[in-house]
Amino acid sequence: MTAPASAPALRIFAGTTEGRLLCEWASGAGIPARAYAATEYGGELLGELPGIEVHAGRLDEADMERELSGARIVVDATHPFATLASGNIRAASLAVGARCLRLARPAEALPKGVVSVASIACAARFLSENPGRALLTTGSKELAPYTRVADFAERFFVRVLPLPGAITKCIDAGFSPSHVIGMQGPFTRELNEAMLRQVGAQWLVTKDSGTVGGTAEKLAAARDVGARCIVVARPAEGGGVLSLREVEDALLREFAR
Q1: How far is it, in rounded angstroms, from Cα 224 to Cα 190?
Q2: What integer best gives the mean pLDDT of the chain?
Q3: How far is CA 182 from CA 104, 160, 165, 211, 245, in A?
Q4: HSE of 30, CA atoms in CB hemisphere, 13 A
Q5: Fewer CB near the terminus (10 Å): N or C of the chain?
Q6: If pLDDT is split at 50, 70 and 90, which confidence band does 215 have?
């Protein structure tokens, strides 16, 4: 797999809302780019934008280095929790001599009463020590820690993307279909509240994905129904993290004529 010889000098890993917004901005600004989405579904969300090529599908380390050949700037706009992908993007950018910009959504202070934990494994341990049903909204990739909790199949309900692979992972992990909710967000406060009431949840588990990730709506809904929230903290990113506006300004300086 190799990027076309004529591939634009700007590459964007656009697995988030910020990534999609950056692609729309680049298209409007007349800056050609090649955008990457990990799945066909993600590629469809990017849509068709003038000047923006879309590659849908996961890249391993070797593929990524070949794919980024010829790039001048690479923007990593992957999810705050996609640490492995971010590491691979930085390494591949360095290998091809491209400048890598990390676009990340701003973090927000969590309200009082929220249980903040360092990982999904920590969230599962907390639930094992505290009774009550829980609505899990942390995705389908890390279900194993939850399955180690006694009576998990009865206590926990999982909300994931309505994709065959995601649903299969839940079923294979031991969740019954009646405890799997396949839906695509964004979710309003009212819809989150209705789901919490429907499953009788005393707990809602989510990642700290910020405003764009719907964290505020989840926290408000939990408060409305008297449930408590367990929030998995973001991995530390270190320095060099840029906002959407800062990345746009950097690209204008680099590519504007």
Answers
A1: 9
A2: 90
A3: 26, 5, 11, 21, 33
A4: 3
A5: C
A6: confident
* Strands 73-76 and 180-182, sheet pairing: unpaired
- Treating both helix axes as pointing N-terminal to C-terminal, what angle do 244-255 and 17-28 enclose, rounded to 10 degrees? 30
Do 12 and 36 touch, CB atoms closer than 8 A? yes
Run of H or E residues at 56: strand 52-56
Indicate the pTM of the whole model: 0.75
HSE value, Cβ hemisphere, 13 Å, CA-based, for 146: 25
Beta-bridge mates of residue 204: 135, 229
- For 248, 253, 255, the CA distances from 73, given in Å and listed in that order, are 12, 12, 10
Share of the chain above pLDDT 90, in %: 66
Q: Read off the pLDDT of each residue in 98-114 and give the average, rounded to a whole number.
A: 85
Q: Determine the Cα–Cα distance for residues 225 and 193; give it in Å rounded to an integer.
A: 7
Q: What value does the mean pLDDT take over residues 142-161? A: 96
Tokens 């910009």 appear where?
Answer: 101
Strand partners, 115: 230
